[in-house]
Amino acid sequence: MKTILTEQINYASINFRDWSFSYFYSDQGLVFTTFQKEAVKEFEKWSGLKSVFLQKNTAIDQAFSDYFAGQSSEIDLKIDWHFWQFSDFQLCVLKALQKVTQPISYTDLAERLADKKAVRAVATAVGKNPIELLIPCHRIISKSGQIGQYRDGSDVKRALLELEGK
């Protein structure tokens, strides 16, 4: 996915159960999150950027820590929507997904966008979600109720859904 780099990108990590959760941010907000072990390499793969700086952000750390401790069901942090070059459709899908509070299928999400024929396009847009948790793609499940796939693995997805009591 293409990016529009206008400023320094920082990152930090916190623990959630057996995983390390890493977040990347600009002065404008979050740009990427991942549970991958090699988070910087994963960010480089997504963004093409090779220069990021390790620097914790107390407010971001606290928001994710509260979420992982079960003290908050939603994470109220800013997203830097201008960092990535999203198509209008991708942006529409990701913003709709941001409002999802319970597990739903791709079909359900497509119907919320008033185009149930766009299920594959919706699934592709969700698959390109760079900001897990704030844009809760882990809440997408199959129509049959199966947990389905997740960028960071089904074990992480299951743990997040259990944390949220869903």
Automatic annotation (TrEMBL):
Keywords: DNA damage, DNA repair, Methyltransferase, Transferase. The keyword RNA-binding does not apply. Pfam families: DNA_binding_1. Residues 88-165 form the Methylated-DNA-[protein]-cysteine S-methyltransferase DNA binding domain. The keyword Zinc does not apply. It catalyses: a 6-O-methyl-2'-deoxyguanosine in DNA + L-cysteinyl-[protein] = S-methyl-L-cysteinyl-[protein] + a 2'-deoxyguanosine in DNA; a 4-O-methyl-thymidine in DNA + L-cysteinyl-[protein] = a thymidine in DNA + S-methyl-L-cysteinyl-[protein]. InterPro entries: MethylDNA_cys_MeTrfase_AS, MethylDNA_cys_MeTrfase_DNA-bd, MethylDNA_cys_MeTrfase_DNAb, WH-like_DNA-bd_sf. This is MGMT family protein. It comes from Oenococcus sicerae.
